[in-house]
């Protein structure tokens, strides 16, 4: 008997914290992961907690905003950090940190898009 494993996680950006779409409780795992991406105060809005697609939309906006912030911090670091009296080694370390953060946030943005597409596909397929 041959056992075939099938998965909807065709994208490499699918977050490991989220179960495979269509599996038991996958939407709850998606919502839990998405909640971690938005400010905690948004957890008090029942509409976002009841509708994972809305939560995903907000997470997309949140992550895009964070990317803009990290890019601005990166682009202005060389000019602005010396005026704060920071040593060159700290400035260089900070620039590397911002560059790494931009890359990480871009990966998260791709993951949010993958989860959003799965949630939208699931909700329209009902």
Word description of this protein:
The protein has 126 residues and is an all-alpha fold. It is built from 4 helices and no strands. The chain has helices at residues 26-35, 46-50, 52-80, 88-124. α1 (26-35) packs parallel to α3 and α3 packs antiparallel against α4 (88-124). The longest helix has 37 residues, at 88-124. It is elongated, with a radius of gyration of 19 Å. The two termini are 33 Å apart. Mean pLDDT is 89; it is low at 1-9.
Q: Report the C-alpha radius of gyration, rounded.
A: 19 Å
* Number of H- or I-type helical stretches: 4
Spell out the helices and strands N to C. HHHH
Low-confidence segments: 1-9
Topology (SSEs and partners):
Blueprint: H1 26-35, H2 46-50, H3 52-80, H4 88-124
Helix pairs in contact: 1-3, 3-4
Give me some keywords for this one.
126 residues, mainly alpha, 4 helices, 0% strand, disordered N terminus
In short:
It is built from four helices and no strands. With 126 residues, the protein is mainly α.
């Amino acid at each position: 008997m041959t056992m075939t494993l099938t998965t909807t996680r065709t994208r490499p950006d699918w977050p490991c914290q989220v179960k495979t779409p269509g599996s038991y409780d996958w939407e709850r795992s998606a919502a839990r992961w998405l909640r971690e991406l938005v400010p905690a105060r948004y957890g008090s809005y029942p509409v976002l907690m009841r509708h994972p697609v809305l939560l995903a939309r907000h997470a997309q906006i949140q992550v895009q905003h964070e990317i803009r912030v990290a890019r601005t911090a990166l682009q202005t670091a060389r000019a602005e950090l010396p005026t704060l009296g920071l040593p060159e080694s700290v400035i260089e370390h900070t620039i590397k940190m911002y560059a790494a953060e931009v890359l990480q946030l871009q990966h998260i943005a791709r993951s949010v898009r993958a989860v959003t597409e799965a949630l939208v596909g699931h909700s329209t397929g009902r």
